[in-house]
Every structure is written in C-alpha cells, then in structure tokens.
Amino acid sequence: MSEIEKSFTPPDEFEQWPMGDLLRYHAEGGAARPAITFGGTTLTYAQLDERTNRRARHLADLGVGEGDVVTIAMAKGIAFYEAVFAVWKLGATPNPVSASLPAAERQAILELAKPRLVIGPEGDDLPGWEVLGAGAFDAPAPHSPARLSAPPAKNWKIMTSGGSTGRPKLIVDGRAATHDPRFPVLTQVVGDTVLNPGPLYHNTPFTVTMHCLFTGGHVIEMERFDPLRTLELIETHKVGWISLVPTMMHRIWRLPEDQRLSFDLSSLRVVFHNAAACPVWLKQEWIDWLGPDRIIELYGGTEGQGFTVINGREWLAHKGSVGRVVNGSRLSVRNDAGGECAPGEIGTIYFLPESGKGSTYRYVGAEPQALGDWESLGDLGYLDEDGFLFLADRRKDLIISGGANIYPAEVEAALDAHPMVLSSIAVGLPDADMGQRVHAIVQVGTEKPDPSEDALREFLGTRLARYKIPKTFEFTSEALRDDAGKARRSKLAEDRADTSSEG
After folding, report:
1. Which of 249-263, 342-356, 418-432 shows the lowest per-residue confidence on average (mean pLDDT)?
2. Which residues contact 228 (CB under 8 A, 6 or more apart)?
3. Does residue 395 carry a pLDDT above 80?
4. Among candidate residues 34, 39, 52, the one with its CA nearest the CA of residue 216
5. What is the domain range of residue 165?
6. How far is CA 440 from CA 179, 378, 492, 496, in A?
7. How far apart are CA 279 and CA 250, in angstroms?
C-alpha cells in the first residue's frame, strides 16, 4: 500500500479519542512540545490545553454545551485555534466563517446554522444572536485550567460554501469529533511541522492544521499568504509539509529566480495542492524545481463523497490528471443520458462512498446534484484508459460560444503563463451572434504597463484554438482570488453581463 493510500486507510484498531482531549494526550507525552507558532508567539501543547480549558469554561458560562453549534468568525491567530478546541471540549461543533463576510451573507449563514453562540464579531449588527466579541473572548479568563469532560460532538465541523452565488449552504461533516492520535492524514507524519498559508474558514486549511495538532505536530501559521515569507518560514522552521493552491504556487513561481532559489527547502517532504485546477505548465515547473516525489495533488470536495490523488511521478505519465480514486469510494463519469462515458469522453464526475450515499455529510440550505445514489460536485471531466481522471471545468462555468464548448480553466491556464499576468478569470458574457463570448479579466501588477490586448491575443494564439481566445479583455490590479484560490466567478460574470446589456 502506498503512502497516499495509507493516508485514507485508518488502522484496524482505530482509537476514538475525543478531539477535545487530544491536546492533553500530547501534553502528557511532552508538555514542552510546540503546538502552534504565530508571529513571535509559540504555545506548547500543555499551554494550549490549559488555555482551551479556560476558554471552554467561559463558553459554558454563556450556555454552550453538548450538541450545540458555535459559529467562529475570527481572524487568523492562536485565538481561533483556542476557540475551536474549546468548542470541541464542550461536545459542540465549530462552524468557521470568514471574519470579513458581508453582513447579509453572514446573516444568511447564521439562519442556517442556528448557533448557540457567535464568536468574533464586534458591535451590535447581529440582533437575535448571542455574540462574544473577539476582544472579550481573548481577554484573560479567570476560569480553571482543569480538564473538562464531555461526549464528542456528532459532527466535528460545519463548513460553509456557495457564497459566490449569494445562496450560502452548510456542509455538515458526517464524522464524529474523534480521532486517533497515531493516525496522520494526507501524507503528514506524526509530529510533523506544517505551514499553513491559507484561511482557516476554508476546508483544506482547517482540516490539515487540525489534523497536524491531532497527531502531535507543530503548526506554523502566517497571517496571510505572502510568497517570499512562505519560503522564509519553510527554511526557518524546517517545515516538512505544506498545503498550497495553484494561485499561491503561481505567485511563488513568479518570484525572481535568485530569490526563489536562495532558500533551503531540503526539509520539505510534501507540497500538497488542491482546491482548483493546476495549469500543466505550472505543475511541470514545480516538479522540475522540487522533484516529482514531493508534489501531491488531491481532487475532491468538502462533502467527502470521494477523492482522487496523484503524485508527481504518476502525473508525469498522465500529464494534467488529478489522479485515480482512493480507497473508500467509487468514481464514475456519466453523460447527459446517465450512461457511463467511454475513456476520453467528457461527462459529469460522480462519487459514491463505500459507506453509502449521505454517509459523509449533509447539506443545510441546498440539495445535492445526484444521479441515483451517485453525487456530483458539478465538475466535468474524463477518465483515460488507465482510470486517471482529468478535469474539464464546472458545468455551470462552461462557456458555449457558437455551439462550441469552451472551458474557462483552459483559457485561464494559457493566460496565466504570460509573464505579465498575475491571475485571470474567464467568463461567458451574452453575445447576440454567438450566444456567449469569452471575456477575460486579467490581474496585472502596478509596476509595469498593462500588456496590450493584441499582445495577449498573439501569446494565446500559440496555446489555444482561435475560438477559445477571449473576444474582450479588462485589466485590474485587484486580486481576483482569495487566499484559498477561490473566485466569485458567478458574481464577476453577472456584474459584467449587466454592464454589457446596459451598453
């Protein structure tokens, strides 16, 4: 069994430790072992355990108890981790959300989650909800640091999704709040040092950092992603494992070569990436730089119905693939009639967990896209003859121009290869003649003039079929994706469609 397969296969004798007790487990095994470093502060497991006991008693005074939901809208920092573990210690379920959500979107999430308490927001803009501001939560608490005891929550986390459409939904994880402290996941190792550049309200950063702590590792946090600072932290802390999204990989790669190559990255065993399609050219550059054995990619959703994984050596033999399905689930690519697609034929990607439909999660505020027991995240793709999956795009993002299917991810990958392009988003806008036209939103730097549209068309002419080249361009210095590599694509298209129709 490969190391990747082991990461998805719990041991036969899996010890169900409550997640709230895992800090104590590691503190008893080494009280001075570092747990979290953020800025200039490091907390040991003993310190983190005691602090979270105090925090839990504070939350209990406010009525939080077994079976409750607590929405956490806090900025990145040690206090965020303390809030999460304090919630677990009370047998409750954390619901992390962005601290900077617009009021209407946050209210919509709260109406779905119905939390017993909201931690983080300051002020009086949440009528009807019990709120503990971040300042009050972080203030010294005169509570006992003694151990608490509560049954583990039935659901270890509740994540949110769908904000880009204006209709948020909750993804309630079907797994109980227990874990075996001897079982690392996603090719981490027990006692690993993990660097997290991503936002903790997104599923992957939340999951990988918490599992690092579950197995006695050291989480190195950064306030927000910065490409140069990322390399500095890897060298300084001898980081062994890091999770990136393609946007981050792109920004690191765009550093001047003398900077990028000046750091000692010999400690780095794994660069794990997911969350968006990685352009083939960019992944090839990373493999050439760090070697194929360090690069691992995963495709799957927060829902956890199934995953595919691929390492760098497999990828070199199947360039562009996101891998084969791993233990615990089945994968099927289906055409519009519901039949199995032949190898190479693009269809909708479906998963089915071995434990059965609905066993890994449930939605609140949405219904799954289903075909019988099979469920889809809405992505299109195809399998090759060897069972390796290749992504095309999301069906709702597909651009149909003059009857031809155009996949935005392909257009964006070609644009992002241009040396003056930091990021790009391709959307379909209404066109009286073609039905839709490809419009490219291009993020550029502020230190150089924008590339001309003619220059971009010439550049794309060697990389894309003519009908895929954007008909129109716009340039911006604003970031198009957040630190988790996510873009509000539907909103970007909607805004431009309205402007286009007005013109």
Report:
1. 418-432
2. 255, 259
3. no
4. 34
5. 29-177
6. 45, 22, 11, 11
7. 9
